[in-house]
Amino acid sequence: MEVSVDTNVARRNILNYRTVKQDGVELLVSPDLARHSENLHIKLNQFLFFRHLKAVVELTNGVVLGARAM
């Protein structure tokens, strides 16, 4: 399974996605990911005018996606 972060939803059908709002930010989460997720962390790194979003998801079975192995 892959976690992807996208800021462009212009021509996508987002009707099946779950909407999560927190601190003025709206996240669209796929139904499968929402159903099997325990925690979802979004991190924004910014350098000059470059922005990079990273998602780390902990699934209900304990698997962590998007984090580097230690």
Explain this structure.
With 70 residues, this protein is mainly beta. The chain has a domain at 33-70. The protein is built from 1 helix and 5 strands. It has one helix at residues 31-36; strands at 18-22, 25-29, 37-47, 50-59, 64-65. The longest helix is centred in the middle third of the chain and has 6 residues, at 31-36. The mean pLDDT is 79.
Keywords:
70 residues; mainly beta; 3-stranded antiparallel beta sheet; globular
Shape: globular
The class by helix and strand makeup works out as: mainly beta
Strand content: over 45%
Beta strand count? 5
The percent range for helix content is under 10%
Q: How large is the count of helical segments?
A: 1
Determine the mean pLDDT.
79
Major β-sheet annotation? 3 strands, antiparallel
Give unreliable regions as ranges.
Answer: none
* End-to-end CA span: 19 Å
Order of helices and strands, N to C? Answer: EEHEEE
Q: What integer value in Å does the Rg equal? A: 13 Å
Order of strands across the widest beta sheet?
3-4-5
